[in-house]
Amino acid sequence: MMIEIERKFLVKSSDFKTGSYQQTRIIQGFLNTDPERTVRVRINGKHAFITIKGISSKNGLSRFEWEKEIPVVEAEVLLDLCEPGKIEKVRYLVKNDNHTFEVDEFFGKNLGLIIAEIELNKEDEIFVKPSWLGEEVTGDVRYYNSQLSKDPYINWKKDLE
Amino acid sequence: MMIEIERKFLVKSSDFKTGSYQQTRIIQGFLNTDPERTVRVRINGKHAFITIKGISSKNGLSRFEWEKEIPVVEAEVLLDLCEPGKIEKVRYLVKNDNHTFEVDEFFGKNLGLIIAEIELNKEDEIFVKPSWLGEEVTGDVRYYNSQLSKDPYINWKKDLE
């Protein structure tokens, strides 16, 4: 149970992969996609979690998060109960200077979307931007995984061009 | 993680209280009230739980249920995240012949409503009906706690008269 502070960026090249020290396949669904009370079921390699998130702070940087590890077999059953629109992605961990980026490469209806997140200890914490880091999308609800499950990237990527 | 088989009845007198061997105050809220994927946070005396339920079987008797105990302090924070409309009730355990009834006396906007539930091992299991047991409401979505939180008894009890 904590407040999570993170910033989120689009990724403009796959150069991040060379610096990645861990890759995990993630499949996740949502028992509620309401940004005020998101309930997520995630299978992350050999582990599974149920995660509840509240609404973001006004600047989009901080968000209440509660998480419990649960058995993978239970997560599989709960995934069947989730709203339509599972998210499939590979998460790359990429060390950059003193920070670690979590870079998510999406598949399925979100193919083509790559998002990097960095977790910070305070909102104004300084960090080094790697060359592959693109536009910041912190607080942009379209890029919430809960929203991508309902309204995937394939539906609106043309509007960005 | 289980399939719960239960039957639900209205209660027509407070005679059940004399046979009750345990009473617990319950406060609960919902992170999702959708009957297909209900997510409930409950504080039950000194214990707290997060419970996820699926849709009922066609006859309303069986329902998938997954439950985890969580610390009460975490449940208190999660209750704040829930949809408006907390449920407050006292649960009485009442032994009757070979079965135990859970009788919920509601407060707040559901004042006046008393519901008895009996959990069965199989759908056609026979049980003795106590004198205070009223009309069966198994499968009637209005009496789901998730629905009572959104559309409480005070709103529609006049329609029953």
UniProtKB/TrEMBL annotation, chains A, B:
InterPro entries: CYTH-like_dom_sf, CYTH_domain, NeuTTM/CthTTM-like. PROSITE patterns: CYTH. It comes from the Bacteria. SMART domains: CYTH. CDD domains: CYTH-like_CthTTM-like_1 (cd07891). Transmembrane segments: none annotated. Residues 2-150 form the CYTH domain. It holds the Pfam family CYTH. This is CYTH domain-containing protein. The lineage of its organism: Bacteria, Pseudomonadati, Bacteroidota, Flavobacteriia, Flavobacteriales.
